[in-house]
Fold this sequence. Notes:
Blueprint: H1 6-16, E1 23-25, H2 32-45, E2 47-52, H3 57-71, E3 74-79, E4 82-86, H4 111-115
Parallel strand pairs: 1-2
Antiparallel strand pairs: 2-4, 3-4
Amino acid sequence: MLSLTVSERLALKGRAHALTPTVMIGNAGLTDAVLKEIAQTLKIHELIKIRVMSDDRLLRASMMESICEQLNAAPVQRIGKILVVYQPNPDLHQIELKKMPRHKGKKPLTKKQLGSR
């Protein structure tokens, strides 16, 4: 499973805001066909939203973890029934992740300071 820094995760959250869910996980759960579809979509878009139809919060959390482990992706965000997943594609490299911006004191900015930008 990939790991992201705080600034990378914040940048990806901002990019994911305008996206619509491209893959839906129904009542059958996380099947091989769904995983294959998620993998294909990640290769094309790098950053996707997944809608889960289950009402169980723990099941959705375990789905996010298993998706990221099996596909070597990074979990970006989980809000309600929406999961946001990122997997860089070296061939396309559509999304540029920037380093954490610094201010005059040469200290990294806090989450609150980054959010206001």
